[in-house]
Amino acid sequence: MTIIFLSLLIRFPCSSESSIINEKIIPMGIKKIIAIASAKGGVGKSTICANLAYSFSKDHSVGILDADIYGPNQHLIFNIEKLKPKVIEVEGKKKFIPLSAGNIAINSMGFILDAAMAAMWRGPMLSGAIKQLMESTEWGDLDYLFIDMPPGTGDAYLTVAKDLKPDYAILVTTESPLAIKDTIKSKAVFTKLNIPILGYINNMSSSVCPHCSEPLEEDRGLRDLDVEGALDLPHLGSIPRTNDILNFRLEESTILFVSTYNALKNIL
What residue spans define the domains of the chain? Predict the structure, then answer.
């Protein structure tokens, strides 16, 4: 596995999980950190994160930390996968300058990991990589930093939740019974760590005709579930399946996030 900053930045911890410090790792210029999370993979967490950041960037300074070490995608969504962040020296330490996509500052594990290789790292290595990525990025002044969380509730997930200590979390689910059950697990983790959950987003809640953009009728069957009742969290919005979201056309899909954005602004 090729890691472009292995010799420059990362010093992986060699002891067990008990060596993790419980201090908040936050550059002073970041006002609020919001974790976008889902215990279940494949529910569209990364596209939700990208679209929320894009919506907020219209009126605020915004960044994205792609901490999904197993499958980083933000560099792909923003079509900057061929670029690499610059490394500079600040007070004797190597620092990343995040790439800029529109008005969004982005740093991702995708810039670091070999695109053809999987991250076959043990817990301490995962934790060290994520913490170094956050600490070693010169974010500048941001109103909001969105963290694209790794799926699950394992070491990488706990590192973000405990060490980076987000101010808030937003959970992403679908109407699948399995996704809902796993989202309840995410809720339990954030609750245990005393990280407030703003609510949940129901992704892929319906289909839209690719030709006329009208909603398609569906036989909901078993999918007609009481998601809000099951999660017992505020419903921040439902996002349909559309070609604009599928093809990462962020400007075109912004309209789908207007109500969610307004709901979040009223909370924040």
Answer: 30-267
Please choose, from the candidates 248, 206, 193, the residue with its C-alpha nearest in 3D space to the C-alpha of residue 24: 193
DSSP class per residue in 184-222 = HHHHHHHHHTT--EEEEEEEEEEEB-TTT-PBPP---GG
- Record: fold of 30-267: Rossmann fold (3.40.50)
Determine the Cα angle at 222 with ends 220 and 225, to 5°.
85
Tokens 């099951």 locate to 230
DSSP bridge partners of 197? 169
- Identify which of 121, 124, 168, 188 has the alpha carbon closest to the alpha carbon of residue 263: 168
Distance CA 221, CA 86 (A): 51
Among the listed residues 22, 4, 7, 12, the one whose alpha carbon sits nearest the alpha carbon of residue 193? 22
Q: What is the residue-level pLDDT of the chain in tens, covering all 268 positions?
A: 444 444 444 443 333 332 333 445 555 689 999 999 988 888 999 999 999 999 999 999 999 999 887 788 999 999 999 898 988 888 888 889 999 998 999 999 888 776 655 556 666 777 778 888 888 899 999 999 999 998 877 777 777 777 888 999 999 999 889 999 999 999 998 998 889 999 999 998 876 666 666 666 665 554 567 888 889 999 999 999 898 999 999 999 999 999 999 999 999 9
Residue 11 has which token pair?
A: 């010093």
Distance CA 214, CA 54 (A): 24
Buried b (16+ CB within 10 A) or exposed e, 171-199: bbbbbbeebbebbbebbebbeeeebebbb
Q: Beta-carbon neighbour count of residue 263 at 10 Å? A: 18
Report DSSP state, residue 156.
H
